[in-house]
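Reading is simple: each integer encodes one residue's backbone shape. The lines below illustrate:
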Amino acid sequence: MKFLKALQFLCIAVVTSLLALLIYGFYAVPDELHKLTNEEISVNRPFTVRYEGDQEISLSKARNQSGRYTVEISLFHAIPIKDSTVTVGKRQYVVVSGSIFGLRIYTDGVLVVGTQEIETQNGKVNPAENAGIRKGDCIISIDGEKVNSCDKVSQILNNDAYKSFTVVIRRKNKDKTVTLTPAYSVSEQKKRAGLWIKDSAAGIGTLTFYDKETGVFAGLGHAVCDADTGEILPMAYGDTVKAAICGCYKGKSGQAGELCGTFSTETTGFLIKNNALGVYGTFLTERHDENLTPVALENEVKTGEAEMISTVDESGPQRFSINILKVDKNDGEHRNMIIEITDKRLLNITGGIVQGMSGSPILQNGMLVGAVTHVFVNDPKKGYAVFAADMVEETLNVQQQAAG
């Protein structure tokens, strides 16, 4: 009887352990694996990689070929767990920066940052809201005429304020047509649409790197978003200008700090893309920097000591010590690392990570591993970073777009 109970306990323990391993493997093994040519695919034991679900991966088939294919991750060569996509590529090299630049973005359409009630003889009404226009929408055209500036919107609406207008708005990449009927304001004695709009944004950020061969650069590590709506600014065009640091508001718990900078009128480049991985563009003049740095694959990024290059005063780009506390290969918002500033020099100047440092390149073991993106508001010594490999991949898309 004791033997049966012991056997039953052993079976339960084995099944529980297997289930725990299966659950751990499902979440621990990334959905996307990256490797270089002439390099094996590796996952932590007891997990194994199988090709097309029924045979061991044939390294000779993929070793020297760039591209993507799917492998099956299994436990003990027997129990399937999940499929992962493998990306095979050659080692990328870029010129690392860390310098400050100014950027100006002009929207594709006009961004709605708010709506307003109008006091009429019959009470308060909100014409924009009644038309179905929301904060965060982008006005593309009015009565068939494309609009890209606040002045253009005002000109059209004021030309004939006693009519209804056909307005095309863009919301989450989908266009929608609505009818906007302005209301007569008793206080201003004229028709008003009840719209708060903007058509541009400007600021400073940090240049992460550029490709020596193509001149395509990457910066910020995150999108330029509207401060009022939190939405990514839909960019029609933009440019970069020279900038200089003239001071800093130190960060403290509950309040993000900020680098203070001045713009020059000298244009240095043109922006091509603004998305979740940063801003991308091309330089106006050829660069002649020769120092190339290898870019780490996601699986090469480890927790531990690292360096960050930032410009926080008139001295230009400087290296500061940091720790990478966590690496997350599966984060859908590109918050792939949690970092902590450990350099006392930087903490004395800025208090930690501050606005304007976004895009600061992160180096580890002689490779570019990432770029700073966001600060922890309640602990400015800590923040998030994005994988450099993802930003480099995005420059390839920008290169194709620029060539087209």
The two ends are 78 Å apart (CA to CA).
